[in-house]
Amino acid sequence: MALLRFPLRLNKVLTSPAISTSIRSVSSLKYDGIKVSLTDNPKVIPPHDKLIFGQVFTDHMLTINWSHDDGWNTPHIVPYDHLSISPAAACFHYAVECFEGMKAYRGVDDKIRLFRPMENMKRLNNSARAASLPEFDGEEFVKCLKELVRIDQKWIPAHSTKCSLYIRPTFIATEPIIGVQKCRNALLYCINCPVGPYFPKGTFNPVKLYADPAFVRAWHGGVGESKMGGNYGPTIRVQTLAESEKNCDQVLWLYGEDRQLTEVGTMNIFMHWINEDGDPEIATPPLNGIILPGVTRDSLLALGKTWGTHKISERKITMDDIKIALAEGRIKEMFGAGTACVVCPISDILYLNESLHIPTMENGPEVAKRFYKELTDIQYGVVEHDWTVVVD
């Protein structure tokens, strides 16, 4: 198997220079000395073809407490259970929390791999800063995650490149005081669940999008680039509207008077088209503070740059751009990309009561399928790559 290495440009996350959210850290998060308590009642593992995304959890979880006075405590791996937290905790009242989404894969060689875990750590630390939560050592936390995955490795589906173990690190303020202030106590924990395809339709079935400029997911000067619950909860109402009244699968979030494309549901959005200059181009909106810097997004940009067949761009895309390009027959494909779904084709956009058909499936979809194959080949060990970290 060939070992591939690509030069990568790290995501630049925009932060407000006018706001300082630094928190004193007394002791650093360390993997050494991690304590493990194994369950006496292991669960029954469901067949991989019966998995529903995010509904079944593994036997164990990771917990690490932090306090302003003592810093980071010893990491613990314990049986999966409910948390005991004060009902006055700041995470419940003021959404002082953030989280991540990543996966472990059982490869064709039976090795277990994480995919670019340090990118998730950088993003989680960026989100923590936005929530005024303490920073942590990402490399040490990855060691803890690897130990958790190693202990529950039997939960990672084998002989399937459609299944994986979804890893959900979560960081919450546990300070039991009513009042908007920096927390003095926090909990960093992680739960895992075996998963199949994210969408009920399965892998690579196209989705229809609902785009309404009346609804906005994020705005400049806010925290749209952070992975925080407050960015997701308010979208449920619009998602429900899209499904129940508009016969759509996901929401295409627009921004500004020119109705820029930003994200699709929980995914970044890509377009394969012939641009205004007549060149084949793969484009995605730029990271401008209102778009989550997706790890899958960054990976597809890097992969595309190795092909030498398309211009790879981070550029503003508006709904007018879409309508004009469709009328001129220049759009080839549109698709979403993210950790949960990997790559998801887009077939239609319902915009201002007009249904715009995107000819993604009629065009293969050539680029979307190539991205999906190249990315999953790396994740499942078909192609060795330094993006992956083997769990020994």
UniProtKB/TrEMBL annotation:
GO terms for biological process: L-leucine biosynthetic process; L-valine biosynthetic process. One of its GO terms (cellular component) is mitochondrion. Gene3D superfamilies: 3.30.470.10, D-amino Acid Aminotransferase, subunit A, domain 2. The modification N6-(pyridoxal phosphate)lysine is found at residue 227. Keywords: Amino-acid biosynthesis, Aminotransferase, Branched-chain amino acid biosynthesis, Pyridoxal phosphate, Transferase. Its EC number is 2.6.1.42. One of its GO terms (molecular function) is branched-chain-amino-acid transaminase activity. It is an enzyme of class 2 (transferase). It catalyses: L-leucine + 2-oxoglutarate = 4-methyl-2-oxopentanoate + L-glutamate; L-isoleucine + 2-oxoglutarate = (S)-3-methyl-2-oxopentanoate + L-glutamate; L-valine + 2-oxoglutarate = 3-methyl-2-oxobutanoate + L-glutamate. Its cofactor is pyridoxal 5'-phosphate. PANTHER family: BRANCHED-CHAIN-AMINO-ACID AMINOTRANSFERASE (PTHR11825:SF44), SUBGROUP IIII AMINOTRANSFERASE (PTHR11825). Belongs to the class-IV pyridoxal-phosphate-dependent aminotransferase family. This is Branched-chain-amino-acid aminotransferase. It comes from Amphimedon queenslandica. The lineage of its organism: Eukaryota, Metazoa, Porifera, Demospongiae, Heteroscleromorpha. The gene is 100641810.
